[in-house]
Every structure is written in C-alpha cells, then in structure tokens.
C-alpha cells in the first residue's frame, strides 16, 4: 500500500481539529517603520537534504549529547511560505538559508507536487500530513497576492481571528490530537495573544506508519545499552531477523560505522539507522560526515542482507527555539524590528518574527513509527548471519525514497 498525504483544515473560528506530531510556528509582531536560478529536480533534492543536515547539525550542537528529533521538512515549509511575503535582504537571507528560491521558476512547485503525488491516498499505508495554517489578526489586511499564494502552498489555510483577545485560548496553544487514539497534547505560546501579535504561522508534519515487516513483541527483551557517559542501562529492545538494505562504511579517519534501512509499509518511506561500529567511537565523529552526497551514496550502495536487527524502543519529544538556530543559518533580518521586511504580506503594518518555535515527536515500537534531516563502502562478507545491534548511541532519519526528502532526523543517546 502507498502512503497518503492528508491536510486537515482548521475551522473558521481558528481551532485546529487535528494535532500534528511536529509543529513549527512563526509569529509576526507589529514593527516600527523600517528605513534565482532555475534548478533541476536532482539539484533541489540535494539542496533540501543539505538544509536538513545543516539544521540538524546546528540543533545538535546546542543540545550536546541528549536525545533529539527535528523535522527539517516542517521547518523548510515555514521558510518557503515566508518567501512569498519577504522582500529585500530579508528575502535573500531566507533564500540563502534554504539554498533555493520559490520564486525562481516552476521547478520548486513541481518538486512539491511530486512529493505530494509520491504518496497517493491509501487507507492502510503510511500517513504523511504536511501543511501550514496562517492565523491572521482581524486588524491586518493581507495583500491579495500573498493571500492567494499562501493558500495554495503546501496545503496551507488562512484563518482570520482576534489574536489580541486574551479570552481566545486557541490562538495561544498548539493543540495536537493523535490521529490514532485521540490523545491530546498542548503547549502554551507566551507571545500569542499579545496586542502586537498579528500573524501566526504554524507548519505541521504528522507521520504514522507500520513497518514493512513488524518486530515481534514476543522477541523483545531487556538488553544493555551504553550511554555516551559510559553508563550501561537495561532497556526494552526489539528484535527480528529480516532481509534489509545494509552496509558498512568508513570515515576519512577510518572510523567504521554501519547503516541499515528499515522500510515502512509500501516501501515508499524508510528509516535509516546509523551506528558506529565500535563503542569507543563518539557518534559526533560519524555525524560530522553527514551530507546530501553521503546519504545518496548510502541509499544507492546498501545491499540486501539477511541479518539480526536489535533496536531499542524509543520515544523522543524535542522543543527548540528557532530564534537561536536560524540566525546561525544566516536568517537574521527577519527577527529584527528595524531591518525585517515583510511588506509582501501586508502594506498596512511592518512585521517581524517575534517567535520561532519548533516541536517534534517520534515514537518507535514493534508495530512501527509515529512521528509528530567522503566515505567508502565496505560490504560485510560473513558465513553467519550478520548482526545490527543498536546498543549504543545512534543517528536516525526518515526519508522518502523517490524524492529523497528528509522528514525527520535525530539521535538516540539514552532510550530510557
């Protein structure tokens, strides 16, 4: 079965009926009066993957050795939508950070259409739900051109609401309802509801899928896992024997690591697991070699291998203030009340980004995953069934096969 992309539109009063597992939100506040080349499909794939890795690398450095997950696809959609309203140097910084302009030609729109079409409707396959909701204060008059473009971008919806009314709580929370069991989560947004808050952009990405071949609950057991600090813990660990895409690689410093690809139902999406071959090798040394080219190399070079897979169950929730991350990627003017230029959104008031928050969640179990970014190949040749045993820190990323789009990227340093 093939995955499906669905977008739930928010009701007119502004509450969001479906909760995404991943959220990126950007808020615009009233400002004081402030003083592209055509790309091929393959080039866009590489640029979007490079952005995913760059975003993860900056977030990872700030979080040091902790578990984390980030959704580059969700953050990218927010920055793409902002390009419709940005002008001058503000627009240039957004384009430089992503590596492309959505204004250049039809190639970007064609790429997004391909991403959507790659996962056609299916009641049994994976669910990938990507979209944007733009909450606009009743006092802001959007430019018609921006309103039209925004409403057509990545399943976006425009919602008129009174953001300054303290009694309207739905504009001050991200509500995320799990599509499977109705579980509700919320996070208060301190700035929303301010008298200056006039436009709130929330991009969402929800992912849920079963493995192509499930792990058996009967085979799961408590096994040791060694943390970066050298502490050994007993954690619930899944196991099965299956044919998977697998290979071993080396960094330029001859640090060996393994890569295994676990497909989801329909095999249009898969999780890649990257594991240092030796416990003495810090995960950071392997991650430093991540690039769009190495990921493409892995995807094209892995070989079908029957092997034993040991993978700990894990559940990660990460919350990031993108105002500390995006400037490192070159996005600075957008946060400055003086230099920000979003005259393409509204000529009525000058706006700047006052809040930029990203929340991502992922849960990996025996059934599958729920989620709300120069080497040389050395194939193993063994007489016995090889083993991939994730009993130490590892990196993971969820990738769409035909577009190469990285939906989620993160690391596990302590499954418990």
Written overview of the protein:
- By secondary structure, this protein is α+β, with helices and mostly antiparallel strands.
- The protein folds into 2 domains: 4-210 and 316-363, Antithrombin, Chain I, domain 2, CATH 3.30.497; 217-314 and 365-412, Alpha-1-antitrypsin, domain 1, CATH 2.30.39.10.
- It is built from 7 helices and 20 strands.
- Strands 3, 9, 10, 11, 12, 13, 17, 18, 19 and 20 form a 10-stranded mixed beta sheet that branches.
- A hairpin with a 3-residue loop joins β15 and β16 (368-371).
- α2 (72-83) runs antiparallel to α3 (88-98).
- The two termini are 33 Å apart.
Low-confidence stretches: 1-21, 31-36, 118-122, 169-197, 373-383
Helix share bin = 10-25%
What's the number of structural domains?
2
Find the structural class using helix and strand composition: alpha+beta
**Second rung of CATH, namely the architecture of the largest domain:** 2-Layer Sandwich
Please identify which CATH superfamily of the largest domain we are dealing with: Antithrombin, subunit I, domain 2
Shape field:
elongated
Based on CA atoms alone, the radius of gyration comes out at: 22 Å
CATH class assignment of the largest domain: Alpha Beta
Q: According to CATH, what is the topology of the largest domain?
A: Antithrombin, Chain I, domain 2
């Amino acid at each position: 079965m093939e995955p499906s992309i669905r977008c739930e539109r928010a009701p007119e009063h502004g509450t969001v009926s479906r909760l995404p597992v991943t959220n990126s939100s950007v808020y615009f506040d009233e400002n004081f009066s402030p003083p592209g080349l055509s790309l091929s499909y393959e080039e866009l794939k590489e640029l979007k993957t490079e952005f995913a890795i760059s975003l993860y690398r900056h977030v990872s450095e700030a979080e040091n050795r902790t578990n984390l997950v980030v959704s580059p696809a969700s953050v990218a959609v927010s920055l793409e939508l902002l390009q419709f309203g940005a002008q001058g140097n503000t627009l240039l910084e957004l384009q430089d950070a992503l590596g492309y302009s959505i204004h250049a030609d039809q190639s970007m729109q064609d790429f997004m259409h391909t991403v959507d079409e790659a996962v056609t409707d299916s009641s049994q396959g994976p669910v990938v739900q990507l979209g944007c909701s733009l909450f606009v204060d009743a006092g802001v008059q959007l430019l018609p051109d921006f309103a039209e473009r925004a409403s057509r971008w990545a399943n976006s919806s425009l919602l008129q609401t009174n953001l300054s009314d303290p009694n309207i709580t739905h504009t001050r929370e991200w509500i995320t309802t799990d599509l499977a069991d109705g579980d509700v989560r919320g996070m208060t947004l301190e700035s929303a509801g301010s008298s200056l808050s006039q436009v709130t952009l929330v991009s969402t990405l929800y992912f849920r899928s079963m493995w192509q071949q499930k792990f058996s609950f009967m085979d799961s057991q408590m096994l040791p896992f060694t943390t970066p600090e050298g502490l050994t813990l007993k954690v619930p660990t899944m196991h099965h024997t299956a044919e998977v895409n697998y290979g071993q690689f080396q960094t330029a410093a001859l640090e060996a690591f393994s890569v295994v690809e676990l497909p989801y139902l329909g095999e249009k999406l898969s999780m890649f697991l990257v594991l240092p071959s030796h416990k003495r090798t810090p995960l950071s040394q392997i991650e430093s070699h991540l690039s769009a080219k190495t990921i493409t190399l892995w995807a094209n070079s892995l070989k079908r291998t029957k092997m034993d897979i040991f993978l700990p169950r894990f559940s990660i929730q990460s919350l990031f203030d993108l105002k500390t991350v995006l400037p490192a990627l070159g996005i600075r003017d957008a946060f400055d009340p003086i230099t920000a230029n979003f005259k393409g959104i509204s000529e009525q008031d000058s706006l700047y980004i006052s809040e930029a928050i990203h929340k991502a969640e992922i849960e990996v179990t025996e059934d599958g995953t729920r989620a709300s970014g120069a080497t040389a190949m050395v194939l193993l040749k063994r007489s016995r069934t090889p083993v991939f045993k994730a009993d130490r820190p590892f990196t993971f990323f969820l990738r769409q096969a035909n577009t190469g789009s990285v939906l989620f990227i993160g690391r596990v340093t302590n499954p418990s």
